[in-house]
Amino acid sequence: MGKLATPDWILKGFKSKDEYDKKIGKKTSGKNAGKAYKVKKCPECGGINVGVVLGQEEGRGKSEWECKKCKWKGRDIDEKEVGEEEFLKLGE
User: Fold this and answer.
1) Could you give the residue ranges of the DSSP H alpha helices within 1-92?
2) Exposure string (b/e) for 3-19, b if CB count within 10 Å is 16 or more?
3) What CA–CA distance (Å, rounded) separates 41 from 79?
4) What does pLDDT average to over the chain?
5) Most exposed of 4, 11, 64, 73 (fewest Cβ within 10 Å)?
């Protein structure tokens, strides 16, 4: 295994990788542009207050989810990837 190399954007005097990418004309994909969060939603009521149902013994979970709002229980949970702004709105 070789030595780690200093990234080009540092060697050329830029303060961030994003600034360097803009200068050389490299475009970032929309999905990786901002931070993404995975949010689990109840398939019945659409609530985000869901949690894992714990089993009898430690480490032997039933792999089920429970909605705290409508008391739904099951395995098929809706998972959605949202951006930072939408994630912050969900917490309000």
Assistant:
1) 8-11, 17-24, 30-33, 84-90
2) eeeeeebeeeebeeeee
3) 6
4) 81
5) 4
